[in-house]
């Protein structure tokens, strides 16, 4: 039986290679569903490892298969995401993004590099474990409808049928050397809100001749908070945020309309559907009360992410065996969202966190920040642990 020390030693030997892979990807970010060069690079790396089954999926995704002994016994999928964000990088590192306005500010370069490292470990040890590992390098995590939903439509969880899936994501609030797990509900659903209040503009000195949408928008913003505070069961976490308000008037100009944009997040699908109705009704009734019109567009995003309790406990126990109990922590629920949630709605799934922070090095910034960076010591942990978790789950 393969041992944790054996996997860790291989991961250590691959550290420089995995760091180089991460830096190459970091220097060459591509936005969601545009990851053509990244996908080609991933495929090239996999083939260089001697992995024979490497296929393109959904134009900019890659799926690879590694078979151990008795490959039909069980199949575990490991997933990483490929896309970057439309952010101008300000880290100043030597391997900074070479593409203006594009940056791996969410750690997807780390995820991909770690999964490539895990792929090499798994391929080198394939005669020492049983089953099949499917490697999923997924496009478009950052943009609706989410690459996961598209890959599922293209049968990524079939041929061979995936029994369980494991995903890893950087966590800039955990120190490097640690990983975190949470069983059950972990990340929220996420919907986009687009609201337009249509009135009648005119001179700011003559509001009686206008239908001013600005105070109506203000009332709607305030009233929407009561959808969460008074319509929702307080035991169900929910967030409703209006983050953008556009009223293109002037000091003496009342605009014809006001546009609002925001997000709604929760952990309950029944309440989610009801909240959508409440949001639309609240906007329309307030606007109508003042003789105006509200156009409400709710773009349904990712569902909530549910970590299968049994799979997550096994993964946590395996991480303790690999890293030691002092390096494995329990996570709180988080109102952010992830399209890995689509997988978790269909098959047993677990999504865990890889610590990347280092206070002494000044690596403290959160994701989606132009100064986000990671302590690259996390890469050997991430690559080795992913391989170890897959092997342990195949043997479970």
Structure description:
A hairpin with a 3-residue loop joins β1 (53-57) and β2. The protein has helices at residues 4-13, 15-27, 36-48, 108-124, 147-153, 213-231, 269-289, 309-323, 341-344, 378-395; strands spanning 53-57, 61-67, 75-81, 132-138, 164-175, 179-181, 184-187, 191-198, 202-203, 238-246, 253-254, 257-266, 293-299, 305-307, 328-330, 349-357. It has two domains: 4-186 and 304-395, Zn peptidases (Aminopeptidase, 3-Layer(aba) Sandwich); 191-299, Alpha-Beta Plaits (2-Layer Sandwich). By secondary structure, the protein is of the alpha/beta class. Helix content is 35%, strand content 25%. The model has no long low-confidence stretch (mean pLDDT 97). The strands form four sheets. An eight-stranded mixed beta sheet has the order 1-2-4-3-5-16-6-15, with helices on both faces. It has a four-stranded antiparallel beta sheet with strand order 10-12-8-13, with helices on one face. Strands 7-14 form a two-stranded antiparallel ribbon.
């Amino acid at each position: 039986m393969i041992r944790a020390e054996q996997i860790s030693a291989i991961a250590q030997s691959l550290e420089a290679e995995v760091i180089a892979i991460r830096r190459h990807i970091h220097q060459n970010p591509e936005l969601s569903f545009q990851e053509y060069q990244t996908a080609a690079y991933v495929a090239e790396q996999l083939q260089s490892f001697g992995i024979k089954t490497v296929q393109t999926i959904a134009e900019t995704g890659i799926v690879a298969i590694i078979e151990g002994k008795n490959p039909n016994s069980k199949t575990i999928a490991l997933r990483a995401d490929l896309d970057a964000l439309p952010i101008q990088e300000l880290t100043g590192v030597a391997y900074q993004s070479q593409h203006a306005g594009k940056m791996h500010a969410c750690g997807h370069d780390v995820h991909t590099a770690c999964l490539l490292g895990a792929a090499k470990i798994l391929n080198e040890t394939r005669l020492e474990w049983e089953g099949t590992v499917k490697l999923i390098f997924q496009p478009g995590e950052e943009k609706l409808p989410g690459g996961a939903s598209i890959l599922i439509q293209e049968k990524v969880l079939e041929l061979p049928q995936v029994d369980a899936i494991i995903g890893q994501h950087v966590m800039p609030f955990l120190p490097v050397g640690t990983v975190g797990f949470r069983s059950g509900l972990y990340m929220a659903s996420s919907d986009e809100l687009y609201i337009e209040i249509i009135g009648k503009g005119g001179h700011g000195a003559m509001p009686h001749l206008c239908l001013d949408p600005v105070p109506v928008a203000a009332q709607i913003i305030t009233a929407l908070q009561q959808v969460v505070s008074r319509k929702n069961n307080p035991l169900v976490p929910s967030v409703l945020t209006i983050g953008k308000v556009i009223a293109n008037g002037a000091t003496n100009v009342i605009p014809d309309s006001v546009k609002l944009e925001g997000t709604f997040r929760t952990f309950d699908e029944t309440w989610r559907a009801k909240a959508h109705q409440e949001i639309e009704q609240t906007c329309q009734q307030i606007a109508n009360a003042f003789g105006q019109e509200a156009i409400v567009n709710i773009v349904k995003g990712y569902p909530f992410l549910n970590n299968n309790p049994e799979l997550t406990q096994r993964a946590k126990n395996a991480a303790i065996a690999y890293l030691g109990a002092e390096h494995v922590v329990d996570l709180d629920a988080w109102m952010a969202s992830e399209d890995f949630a689509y997988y978790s709605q269909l098959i047993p799934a677990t999504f865990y966190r890889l610590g990347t922070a280092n206070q002494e090095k000044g690596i403290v910034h959160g994701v989606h920040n132009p100064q986000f960076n990671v302590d690259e010591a996390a890469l050997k942990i991430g690559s080795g642990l992913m391989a170890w978790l897959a092997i342990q789950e195949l043997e479970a």
